[in-house]
Write a structure and sequence with these properties.
Elements (H helix, E strand, L loop, with lengths): L7 E11 L5 E11 L7 H29 L8 H23 L3 H6 L1 E5 L7 H10 L15 H5 L2 E5 H11 L11
Antiparallel strand pairs: 1-2, 3-4
Helix pairs in contact: 1-2, 2-4
Length: 182
């Protein structure tokens, strides 16, 4: 089955050719070249990460309030338990938002979505893999490249909503009726 990595587009190039009189003319020619998906840029990626972290802190704060009301606030005093709970909140936030909406709240606000190599909403397993991959130490630094480790390891792409629609048109894919962003 064809993937977005297999897409080609026609590009126009120019070359210089001599005519019968020896004059050099610029001649246009077309060539099929790979069409790479336009993935999110580093600055935008950092922007929606900051937005997502704000939401994660709000959720953690609310959980902390409920912990105090329930009388189990002491569990947050243990550094190992608090880190594990923090990681659980972090992974859960990304998994729940992405599996339900196809995007996190930060990406949603900035107009981005997550797609698989078929320009569709990825599976829950792919979203779970993305979420746990973010817990790998130094994974955040991989986002300075074109695609972060959590994108590569889960075989997903973060693209603008308009790019998703364009890729789906090029693939001849009917939009998924369960996708909230279409």
């Amino acid at each position: 089955m064809k993937t977005i990595e297999d897409l080609k587009e026609e590009k126009t190039y120019f070359k210089n050719e001599k005519d019968e009189q020896g004059n050099v003319n610029r001649v246009a020619y077309t060539k099929l070249v790979p069409r790479t998906p336009e993935t999110v840029k580093t600055g935008v990626r950092f922007g929606y990460y900051v937005i997502d972290v704000v939401f994660i802190y709000i959720i953690a704060f609310i959980i902390g309030i409920f912990s105090a009301i329930a009388g189990v606030i002491e569990i947050w005093d243990d550094p190992i338990i608090s880190r594990l709970l923090g990681m659980l909140i972090f992974v859960s936030y990304y998994f729940i938002t992405e599996v339900t909406m196809g995007t996190s709240l930060g990406k949603l606000i900035l107009g981005y979505t997550v797609i698989n190599k078929f320009a569709q909403k990825p599976s829950a397993a792919a979203f779970l893999g993305r979420s746990f991959a973010r817990a790998v130490p130094f994974e955040a630094f991989s986002c300075f490249a074109e695609r972060g480790w959590h994108d590569k390891w889960s075989d997903t792409y973060v693209v603008k909503n308009s790019e998703k629609i364009e890729l789906q048109k090029l693939m001849g894919v009917v939009n998924d009726k369960n996708d909230l962003l279409d």
